[in-house]
Known about the structure:
single chain, tt1808, chain A, 13 strands
Amino acid sequence: MSTSTLSDLTYDDLAGFPQDDRLRRELIDGELFVTPAPDLRHQDVVARLTAMLVVHADEHGGRVLPAPTDVVFSPDIVVEPDVVYIGAERVDELGDARFIDIVPDLLVEVSSSTTRRLDLIKKRNLYEREGVPEFWFVDLEAGQIDVHRLDAAGVYGMPASLGEGDVLTCLAAPGFELSVSAALCR
């Protein structure tokens, strides 16, 4: 199944769609992107990354939220990253809303055949534009994690590509490190 699109929609429009049809709906500049539910390998990696980050957040503060969690940058920009991390110093800004309306400290997208182009182009560019300090693209096909970090000019530049045997040090969650092999279930 491929990604389908509609345009000029807002967060309020998303509320009118069925919530139980196993489809992921995201808006980027008012354009609707619909993708099917991810496969089991994808979900294994999301669960593992979430668990690793939760251990860190429990010890150091912070909050970790896996999909489905809406991140609303504006009424016409609503994404559902696979994993969202908010640092300890900003957790109080979250409140009890149905969605996140602050810029997360870290967003993680795990690749799938139906979302690869969306994640690598549209969402990467969006996260850079919105000022997300750190973005990980977990490339299951290549067996690596591409780490994008904003530089002083507010751009990601070339990602650090980490593979089997490497250790990822997260700047958005000080003190957090993960084995790429363990994260990729290898």
